[in-house]
Amino acid sequence: MTGTVLEVSRRFVTIVRSDGSVLTGTGSSKTLEVVAGDVVSFERRDGEVFVTTVEPSTRNLFRSTNGKLKKMGANIDLLLVITASGATFNPVVIDRMLVAAQVQSIPATLVVNKIDLGTEHLDEMVAVYQRIGVPVIFSSAKQGDGIDRIISVVQEPTARVLALCGVSGVGKSSILNKLIPGTRTKTGEVSDKTGQGKQTTTQPRGFLYGEPSSGQKIIIDLPGVQFFGLSHISLEQVGSAFQEIREAASGCRFGDCKHLKEPECAVKEAVDRGEITPWRYESYLQIVEEIRDALPTWRQ
Ligand SMILES: Nc1nc2c(ncn2[C@@H]2O[C@H](COP(=O)(O)OP(=O)(O)OP(=O)(O)O)[C@@H](O)[C@H]2O)c(=O)[nH]1
Ligand SMILES: [Mg+2]
Ligand SMILES: [Zn+2]
Questions:
Q1: Are 276 and 267 spatial neighbours (Cβ–Cβ below 8 Å)?
Q2: Chosen domain end from 195, 221, 247
Q3: Using CA positions, which residue lies closest to atom 22 of ligand 1?
Q4: pTM of the predicted protein model
Q5: To test ligand 1's pocket by mutation, which of 187, 201, 220 has the most ligand atoms within 8 angstroms of CB?
Q6: Which of these, 65, 85, 163, 179, is most buried using a 10 Å CB contact count?
Q7: Nearest CA to 89 among 167, 150, 200, 141?
């Protein structure tokens, strides 16, 4: 029997089968290294569910943290990169999440939440993302704007496993609560009981959207990250993950140009002419620097 992982906690894995039934089981330490979105086979032993094998996965969202590779979700058909109007609108993190999606061929849509706080200062940045082909949706989980547009993206038949990612506090869990009313995912509200403390998401968790008969989907609520490390990807991958850099790079003198200090670099020329937005190029440089710092000295 097979199923898709919704959540992993300590020794337990929660799995959904194609008929929509949800089971919780255990397994060996190896099979418990799974994440939400992984497909597993399991057996029933003495009335208990035991995970036996993990299918190879594609379209995985990875980030690196302190030199370790962390798989955040597997088999993701669509990544919703959530950001928010105000202090949490952070293009550096958005660019990194888009790169992580691009290198794994995961289509991504940008959601700018909290538009009830105003959008004037965002227009220019949003236009940059639209120009490089990233669809953008404006929303307010608080007031309900844009939720219908998110729903229509979620309902696209090509997407079975979706994931919501973004820094802490942008409203991922709040959006999920709008998509699946009654899920009561933890949002950063002040706790009723104690009147203090924030309930933020601490581990990835998949929620079921729709009915099994009409193509049930899994939406993974990811915990917020402040830093999205990419030291695991290659320098070539970063260059091609930035669409505008990839396009301009064909004009560089050297085929392996890293667009740093090389002569006749068409990318730097495009930055100077204002055709490539300086803060996107800065994001690129920052990721290149991070990757180089992680390489053994002789390769830097
Ligand atoms: N003004 C406004 N506040 C919002 C909106 N959406 C969410 N919030 C608030 O923002 C705070 C954080 O929301 P969460 O949904 O917990 O954010 P999250 O992205 O899940 O955060 P983590 O779980 O820490 O990653 C809460 O106090 C929400 O009520 C919105 O559209 N407008
Ligand atoms: Mg959350
Ligand atoms: Zn170049």
A1: yes
A2: 221
A3: 168
A4: 0.93
A5: 187
A6: 163
A7: 167
